[in-house]
Amino acid sequence: MSIVEKTALVYCENQFGLMDGKTAAGLVRHSETYNIVGVIDSSLAGKDAGEQLDNQKNHIPIFANLQSALDNLPDIPDCYIYGKAPLDATISVAERALILEAMAKGMDIINGLHEFFSDDAEFSQMARRWGVKIQDIRKPPKLKDLHVFTGQIAKVNVPVIAILGTDCACGKMTTAVQLNKALNNLGIKSVLVATGQTAIMQGAAYGVSIDALVSQFVIGEIENAVVRAFERESPDIILVEGQSSVSHPAFMSSVGILKGCMPDGIILQHPPGRKFRCDFPHLSMPTIVSEIRLIEAISQSQVIAIALSHENLTKTEVQKTIKSYEDRLLLPTTDVLTYGCAKLIRALYNLFPTLGGQNKRNSQIPPLLTTG
């Protein structure tokens, strides 16, 4: 039986295509849960969301405000998604008014912030009044449902690959989603384990938003998600979405991921054109070499490939960076949004020759482009 996607309008005022708009961008690029019918960002009103993100039309319009969206869409969307992920994670008075207005129009509210709308007395009252639901994606499971590390990860006998990064909001989730789709399209059963709110909104069946958990349970929840995916899906490979970076002084997420999933290999996402860490303009970005050394120093796994974010880079600069990294680091390097996942899949085949069973052949992989 096919699953009917709910229609959704994504709020991302002044941030669509920027770092704090990563939730909206992720949903516009891919969602198994929602049919995104529009984005709200007055600074880009009238533009096509796909063209704005990836220079390719996807016919998802960007509206100036909620009323403009409702005036132009054929039907009122089922859901209103708060699509920004700011560091302070609180909403403004104007944003609050829009959420109340969306409720009055009969739209369910989907929230990815640490500020839980369902705990807000006014929001809860209005949700009951208008018969709508509030879903706080980052709200952790109840204590009785949380898990500590057990060591059961040792029984997972298929490759587990973590997609880590050198910073926040640098494309880890996008690469994980694209690689997961590419593998499944080749007949290799791949399951994605989510660790952040956007991948959960996109429809990942396994995982939890780990930055909302008490630290005692982070590693155990990741282990539990991987083990459940292994037991229930009988996959050929499991991909684990990364968060932040091992070297980032503000976050511990990547260390918990490394410990919880004990990966057999790591794909490292890096934005070469970024000079300072996301949201921390006084902190310089690490080098790709320093991040690889740190990851391999604290885990038993190795970086097997590099995926690039092309932000702030021309196509020529991306090509030069790919060649430089491959020559210098001897690691396959690509930009999945430009060149696809062929190099990453070949790296997986080289490391795990029986991936997907004896009948899988390297010839199934799409031919490599000259650079990507």
UniProtKB/TrEMBL annotation:
InterPro entries assigned: DgcN-like (IPR011669), DgcN-like_C (IPR035086), DgcN-like_N (IPR035402), P-loop_NTPase (IPR027417)
Q: Which residues form the D-glutamate N-acetyltransferase-like C-terminal domain?
A: 147-344
Source taxon at top rank: Bacteria
> Which parts of the sequence belong to the D-glutamate N-acetyltransferase-like N-terminal domain?
43-140
Organism (species): Hyella patelloides LEGE 07179
- Put simply, this protein is called EBNA-1 nuclear protein
